[in-house]
């Protein structure tokens, strides 16, 4: 026999009997969730607790059919992790029994929905709710970074680097920054508090961390990125590899764009100490020197005009 009151003593609004209107009881719910299939799904597989699912839904009051919410009124599908309490209990227990492309109605008694308090103003306390749910797909939720091994972090970072490179080559500099920064978020913390010698996990992550940092600095230089943070990206590389000529060259370019010609020349001179035959650095140093002279001449002319 089904309970007539909830745990708090509030009378429950009971859903229609199982079998009525084509509904049947979802196993293990004591009649708290009834289901009616509107369109059969494909295959036999169903999502497991912990999976991410993609759905569309429309929620109505069972008492009068009035709509209180629908994902179809918003762009995109609704995605959530099923079975961990992110949504009402009726969804957590009802959606795990759905197949891909299935369309159904889940009728959720109030103790499987919003309980005695409801969700004012649209959902009164003790209300039974109908949800028309369409399940599109499900997939395993990506691990949180803290759950990943170093190898998994490196693989994620490599994928982001490849995505960023594709965007960069297409001239999508600002979009590539997003990909590169996401890649760095997987591996940069590995290098926190690293002293003299790098531990094994840092050695594994260093190549992709260096590549991502140099690439994102270049993207910020080419696009509308923050030049101060681009310098910090180069500084990070030089912390890991003090003789990295690409980092000195990139940082010099950024200093030049900021009209900090002295810092730019300093970086290029350090680069040439490491690699005296670097023709790109020699050419860049000449260019910076010329630009500095032009800037000084223009500044002198401006001051002469001001005080003439």
From TrEMBL:
EC number of the protein? 5.2.1.8
A Pfam family hit: FKBP_C
Keyword annotations: Isomerase, Repeat, Rotamase, TPR repeat
Can you give the residue ranges of the PPIase FKBP-type domain?
50-139
**In residue terms, where are the TPR repeats?**
245-278
Question: So what does this thing catalyse?
Answer: [protein]-peptidylproline (omega=180) = [protein]-peptidylproline (omega=0)
For this protein, the record's InterPro entries field holds:
FKBP4/5/8-like, PPIase_dom_sf, PPIase_FKBP_dom, TPR-like_helical_dom_sf, TPR_rpt
- Its domain of life? Eukaryota
Entry's Gene Ontology molecular function annotations: peptidyl-prolyl cis-trans isomerase activity
Q: What is this protein called?
A: peptidylprolyl isomerase
Species whose genome carries this gene: Guillardia theta (strain CCMP2712)
